[in-house]
Amino acid sequence: DQQVKQNSPSLSVQEGRISILNCDYTNSMFDYFLWYKKYPAEGPTFLISISSIKDKNEDGRFTVFLNKSAKHLSLHIVPSQPGDSAVYFCAASEDNQGGKLIFGQGTELSVKP
Amino acid sequence: ETGVTQTPRHLVMGMTNKKSLKCEQHLGHNAMYWYKQSAKKPLELMFVYNFKEQTENNSVPSRFSPECPNSSHLFLHLHTLQPEDSALYLCASSQGGGGYYGYTFGSGTRLTVV
Questions:
Q1: SS3 for chain A, per residue?
Q2: Cα(B33)–Cα(B58) distance, rounded to whole angstroms?
């Protein structure tokens, strides 16, 4: 049973527009939600996170929204840039002391000039 | 060096070979992890070590044998692998369980079993 799901394997956006990446989860015990970005031949790099007590967290062009009742989170990138082209993984964990990160399948974002 | 370093970056091995993957972290973290990434699949957690003690084995076949001699080093010993074990193997570290700040990943070892 996959606890974290990214149902869109790919997304294509024009430079300067908004990119919206979505993620759904099934485990209501998750306390933290994170987004990672991965370029080919590199490991994932941490992008932004949100705790379950908040519904929004913003860092520059990146904003994560959390809807706990729908068990859904999304990552907004505004404005999108060609350098944002990568695979984006959402991940979730139950607590800060012993919880392990559970990852989604990833969404490949392509930002076209 | 800083961050999490994995060696080698690429490895091709036969099914009867024995090889080892190495991971080293320079972040002072107390937890280390092995993940496997196959094409079009989520990252799969394999092993978790906290303060060099294994705390999780996610039903990984015994042909994968981890070793954590101290909190900064993690190895994955490989023997009699199958072609379906070909994947990107990622090492990560964290302070505590990661939580809000997540894990720091290495660049991975691309393993091909022939």
A1: CCCEECCCCEEEEECCCCEEEEEEECCCCCCEEEEEEECCCCCCEEEEEEECCCCEEEECCEEEEEECCCCEEEEEECCCCHHHCEEEEEEEECCCCCCCCEECCCEEEEEEC
A2: 11
The whole-angstrom separation of Cα A68 and Cα B17 is 48
CA distance A44 to chain B (A): 6
pLDDT digits 0-9 by tens, A34-50: 999 999 878 999 999 99
Looking up tokens 């024995």 gives B18
Whether A4 has its CB under 8 Å from any CB of chain B: the answer is yes
d(CA A91, CA A111): 22
Q: Residue B106: its pLDDT value, please?
A: 96
Question: What does the DSSP 8-state code read for residue B84?
Answer: G
Q: What is the pLDDT of residue B89?
A: 97
Is residue B39 predicted with pLDDT exceeding 90? no
C-alpha–C-alpha distance, residues A97 and A83, integer Å: 34
Contact between chains at B97 and A99 (C-beta distance less than 8 A): yes
Cβ contacts of A46 on chain B, cutoff 8 Å: 101-104
Parallel, antiparallel or unpaired: strands A10-14 and A107-112? parallel
- φ, ψ for residue B102, nearest 5 deg: 70, -160
Half-sphere exposure of A66 (CA within 13 A, CB side): 23
